[in-house]
Amino acid sequence: MNRPANLIESIEQIVPNLRKAERRVADLVLQDIEATTRISIKAFAAQAQVSEPTVMRFARRVGCGGFSDFKLRLAQDFAVGRMYIEAERKAQSGDVETTAQRVYQSGVDALATAFAGLDDEALAVAASAIARAGKVVCLGVGGSSALMAQEMENRLFRFGLSVTASADAYKQTMLAAIADKGDVFLLFSVTGKPHSLVDAAEIASGRGAVVIAVTVPHSPLAIRAGILLPLEIPGDEVHFNFPNRTRYGQLLIIDCLSALVGSLKQPVSARKLHRIRTTLLSLHGHTEAQPIGD
Prior knowledge:
294 residues, 14 helices, five-stranded parallel beta sheet
């Protein structure tokens, strides 16, 4: 059953089109959302002056399996809404110095947590597989993970590797379908749950490719990975205006992998990087400590 993205907003949107009995149900819910999450269907129906079947029909109309499911979704959406409202109040009352300090400390904490959780053996095995790969495919969806896949492609092509990145669910499945033995699929996910990544991991591994996942342990994606680079950074706070700090940990792993792969591809990688730098001189001339194409 398809569920609404936000139950409270869905109820507000359908109120004008409801029949009288169901409108009483909706009005009572919106009047006191928190109370609705704690009430029995019998008591709720009595308060709304409708029958229990009417309440059940309303719950199913908004995509829930029943009144218990309805209350659970309502409680979740109410909690998230309240959290973001509080976050907005804090953001409005903050100043530049306080905000900068919070962002800095968040990044420092995330890097420390990611570094403490690094699996040296898994990193070495992953880097070796990438360095030997016939083709490397970097995948991620949404937010930071899609950007990390693109960034990994940006790092690896400089060493002369055949590498591609995709954040498109359909293309991810197609790339997995044409995987060959010896290819490497490097997948990024904060949660380890996106269906396209889980499916791609399963298909690619079935084709003989090596699947490396940078994700939370014990997740669906982690379970399907041949090599797991565990990354679990708890969020002490969630704020609408602060990006997920897990990306700092993702960048740490990307930098570690890139440095290891570059070393393993010596002396070929050094020659490739030198040719890139020489070519870029024609664009902007010589500069000290010049990045390789960044």
